[in-house]
Design a protein that fits this description.
33% strand; seven-stranded mixed β-sheet; 16 strands; 21% helix; alpha/beta; 6 helices
Length: 216
């Protein structure tokens, strides 16, 4: 599997299928993914042109909104799974919020979520925007992620300290931080985070730069 970090919280998983997660800042039409996964409706994740999305999976309420824009969607909810060819997609909880601005007002778009993607014998957990929650231990028990993609920017999500505990809870062989350094409010130096996680757990931390690809 190839994992490409496009920036902020956007990742492209390439194996038997091409899966795009949280498309901002890319143009989904250029990526030509087989399936796009949307963790929540905030503009720094769904992008500013949701009507351009290809086939996507999202929480029920957001799926309904996108369907109204003419987007082909797979609506689902927390704890649910579906098979996409030989790829299994599971939606898991996240501790955050989810809304979209309509005429200057925030409109509720369903609960935020994370996704577990099982493809080509590997399991990737993309946490979406979230704070730390103890049920990450259940994600480890149930899905045994090989790769955990976790927010670490603070302010709107977990910061480095909470992300360290999340890495411990999840026990993934590879931890990839996201949702940091996109703008000043979530600026972080994760050098010490990487050292601490690798000293205290069996995980390896990959500090990926936008545009980099990791092959597993």
């Amino acid at each position: 599997m190839k994992i490409t970090y496009a920036g902020h919280s956007c990742f492209i998983l390439e194996g038997s299928k091409k899966i795009l997660i949280d498309p901002m800042p890319v143009n989904p039409q250029e990526i030509k993914a087989d399936l796009t996964l949307i963790t929540h409706a905030h503009s720094d994740h769904i992008g500013d042109s949701p009507e351009k999305l290809g086939l996507c999976a999202a929480i029920h309420e957001l799926s309904g909104y996108l369907s109204g824009l003419g987007v082909k969607t797979i609506g689902m909810n927390i704890g649910g799974s579906f098979d996409f060819g030989d790829v299994k997609i599971t939606m898991v909880k996240a501790e955050h919020s989810s809304s979209m601005n309509q005429n200057g007002l925030p409109v509720y778009m369903g609960e935020p979520c994370g996704f577990v993607v099982k493809m080509d014998g590997l399991t990737v957990y993309h946490a979406g925007d979230t704070g730390l929650f103890s049920d990450m231990k259940l994600i480890r028990k149930l899905y045994k992620p090989d790769v955990a993609i976790l927010p670490a920017g603070g302010l709107f999500t977990m910061g480095p300290d909470e992300c360290m505990t999340a890495a411990e809870y999840l026990g993934a062989g590879i931890v990839i931080p996201m949702h940091y350094n996109t703008f000043e409010a979530i600026k972080q130096d994760l050098t010490d985070f990487k050292k601490s996680v690798e000293l205290t757990t069996s995980s390896r931390v990959e500090l990926m730069k936008p545009g980099e690809t990791l092959t597993i």
